[in-house]
Structure formats: C-alpha cells, structure tokens
Give the backbone structure.
Amino acid sequence: MKDVLAIILAGGKGSRLEPLTRDRAKPAVPFGGAYRIIDFTLSNCLNSGLRKILIFTQYKAMSLDRHINLGWQGFLCRELGEYIDVVPPQQRIDEHWYQGTADAVYQNIYSIERERPKYVLILAGDHIYKMSYRRLLEQHIQSQADVTVGALHVPARLSNQFGVLTTDGHNNIVGFEEKPRVPRGNSESILASMGIYVFTARFLFEQLCLDATRPQSQHDFGRNIIPSLIGSHGVRAYPFMDENRKQEAYWRDVGTLDAYYEANMDLVSVDPLLNLYDRQWPVRTYQPNLPPPKFVFAEHGERGRRGQALDSMVCQGSIISGGHVRRSIIGFNSRINSYAVVEDSILFEGVDVGRYARIRRAIIDKGVNIPAGTEIGYHPELDLSRGFTVTENGVTVIPKTHGVEHFLGKEAAVLLG
C-alpha cells in the first residue's frame, strides 16, 4: 500500500443538490448529522491502509478544506510519508477549469509524478458506501491489468445514470456504454461503473497525455479513456465487495435532494441499512468539542412541556427544550424550543426552532432560525411562495441564511409579534 497514491475527485458543482450546495462543495454536505459525505471515502482509505491521499477540489471548497484540516490531518503523520492534501486547481498546464475527471488528474500530473507511485487509485468523494480498496488493488496487481474498474449491479432502469459495463466470464471488460437510455440485452440488472479506477501509474500518465491531444475528447474517464482502452489493453472489472456487513450491499449516490433525504432517513430506522456503529470498519469525521445533547422539561399533563426525541439522532451541543422530535436528525448546536414539533426532518448545525413551530419532511440548512409558530412542510404551495425549494417527493428545503425571516417577510413579523 506504500506504493499507492489515492486521488479523491471532489470538484463537482453538485447542482442537483442545490440549495445545499449553494455555499459548499457536494462532498462537504453534512450526512447523518455528524458526518460529511466525503468522510465515507476517506474512512475507506484509512481502513484499507492507504496513507497517501490527494483531494482535488474546484468549486466552493472552503468548508471542505476546513473540514479536512480540522478532522483528518491528525490521523496521519507527515514525517512518516503519510498525508491528506487538499489541492485546488493549479492551472499549470491549462488556464481553464477542469473539463472532466481525466482532465482534473491531468492538470495535476506533476503533483502525482512527484510522489512516484506504482499505482494510482482514483475515487469519487460524493458517494456513501464501505469498501476495502486493498482487495481492489490486490486483484489489479495479481491480474496484471492496465486498469481496473470498480463495478456494482444496479437495476437496468437506472442505466441512464451510470456507465454500463459488459464483461466476459473472467471479469474482463469487453464493452462500455456511458449512461445509455436502453442498455444492451434484456437483463433486469446491469453492471455499472462506480467511478473507481486503479491504474498502473506509468500507463495512466501515458493515457492522460494522449487524451489531452484529442480535441474532440471530453477528457473524462468514463466517456473517453476507459472506452478507448477496451479491446487493446487489459481492462478489468472488480465486483463491489461491501464492508457494511448487512444482507443487502449498500452503495448510495446522494446526488439529488430526494435521494439525499431518503438515505438520511434510513439512518433513524430501528435497523438501518448503513451501519454507523460498526467498530470493525469505523467511519471517522471531525467531532467538535461540544457538550452532550440535552433534553429538558418533563412536565406532565396536556399543556406540560416535555423535551424528547424518538427514533432520532441528536448531535452534540443540541438542546431539546420542551419540544418534540420524531424520526429526525438534529445537527450540532441546534435548539428545539417549547411545544415545537419536528418530524421526519434533517436539521443542520445551529438551527433554532421557535416555540410552537411545526416542521415536517424538511431539510433545514446551517444557522437557520425558524420563528415561533411557523409551519414548514405542511403546505407545499405556501413553502414555494416563500422562496423555499420543494422536491418532487414533497420535501421542503430551506437554504442557509441569517434567518428564515428573510423568506417569510411580513408573515414572520406577524408571527414574532
């Protein structure tokens, strides 16, 4: 593993997750209250024995950079040649932003060559899963492949969201279609590319330089480089081996608001598909120095205040002050005030829910103040008129602001008296 350099691509816009990505990169979006999306890829690296990691960023990378510096630098020792470095666009080769995944690596080819790796592992920083990259690398080396592609089985109806692989009986890739509307064959499932690639380093450099000379190329691994190698080089598939230790393999692309919401809501179920409590494959993150969550008031009677959270996850520093939380995720330093009700919702850090407010099926971004008596998620038309986002499945999303009064206007003034 000392001969392997891991590259995490974390520069995409994440436009389908807006407004959550309005001020942050997609890999920096909170997940499960205490985590960021990129924590899962980074945890896979550490658990797999990888100690040399470059993170290529591009858009709105400040919060991601801060998270890495606060939460991840302490796990590795630079004096022993271990590191996690966040690398913004250097523009040494081209003055443009990254044109594709391959171009992002090509523009940083000097940084990669300087480390002199034998193998380069290329990963996406915006997926939720547990996987041993060590096993992937072992197969790549044993098979003497030029490139190995991580692959998983998904329903055929999702083919337009993935690169679709065709293999022979020995995991050799003999065909590749990028996001076809109708995949070849009539199978109910397809073998999809996970966007995970292992290259022998010298071979990677050759292919990146060759692709850079092709003016018609989109400079993307899935669209250009991988398809161009099939039939002339050793291109193999590595079937996804889940480290989540559940009956069903877990891999999620939380690229849309509804997919993101559903993946979070699964965590508060009695037996969630994603096991965050697995000590054999821990998911690490930055944990701020905050007091434990607090639940206050245990008054009886119909009008009694009772601070409680049921089937929920409540992060450090939060106070449930006489409010009710059900099937929800409450981020750091949040407060649910007396008689407020929060159901089936995700609250980011520092959200303050006023008295008698009611929130249902909502995602509320960092630092939002919900005025007393406000209802969120009960009337989609009203939420839309306030300037909020309402998803196809009816989830209301409130972006990061100094206060929800910015959206509610006169309505907030009346509610606040």
Remarks:
- The CA atoms of residues 246 and 297 lie 38 Å apart.
- Residues 413-417 have pLDDT under 50 and may be disordered.
